[in-house]
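Reading a protein record of the kind used here takes only a little practice. Think of the row as the fold of the chain written in a discrete alphabet. With that in mind, consider the following protein and its fold in token form:
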Amino acid sequence: YLKSYKAETSFDYNPLNPEGPAFKMFLGPNSYPLLKSYDSGVEEENELNLDELVPLGWTLFRWINTYLVIPVFTFLGKYIDNFGIIILLLTIIIKIIILPLTYKSYMSTAKIRVLRPQIDEINNKYPGNEKALERQRATMELYSKAGVSPMSGCLPMLLQMPILIAMFAFFPSSIELRGESFLWAEDLSTYDAILTWDANIPIISWIFGNHLSLFCLLMTIVMFIYSYINFKQQGSAQPQMAGMKFMTVYMMPAMMLFWFNDYSSGLCYYYLLSNIITMLMMFGIRALVDDDKVRASINTKMVNTKGKKSRFQQRYDELMRQQEELQKRQNR
């Protein structure tokens, strides 16, 4: 697309000054390394801060992009001409950095998985909404004895979110991808349409656009497979998990398809690689981790902590007691 821009500016002018006003104009690519270089060796009060013109997200996400993503991306670009390969290597490097978090998340999932038979027994012992408090208390007591926190699997994933959001800001802002092709994508800075149509379909054309991006479609398929496998490993017989399954396995991939269909194919390609590598890492960790050893470790923990309650369990018991008293008052 071609666009016309107009700007007006002013500066102080003194006709008695024979030299007249002086200024410089920069006309060039919105490249972060290039814009940042103009402040190299310049005193702080004279810095132009042109690099701030590149939208790299809020403070935390911008920090990740400027100190991690862009330096690695720029370094790889010095030796590799194919940006598809650069994105692949960048994804692998990031996945290696967050591997400890991925391992911790999987171990938490493994512990909950080996406890599933006992959790199902609790659900059968306390069925229905009227016994929800007893069911929750018994489940939390089991987690406490086993040394398992239901939130421990979510926390490592939440810590990875800033990187995912930072990449969401980085790829659309990367001028280096402009006009760079990879596989079927002719331009990694825009969507890679494999199917287009002219008809104006209500709602669909407004939200989805009049095209289908292949990298986005592949990303959605892989995300669905990953979510399905992940949910199956963490699955439970509790009825309320059916709604969670619909949201995580079906709803989220569908939303991603509609949301990212218009976005940079480089971004969709990164998320596609990220999901594939994460699945491979999870399969690799699962092949190395023996569920029997995890179960034995949990049993040892339960024996050693028999009769003891953690501070979290004590606070939770107190909260349950208060809820039971409140429920009894309401039933009077």
About this structure: The chain has a mean pLDDT of 80.
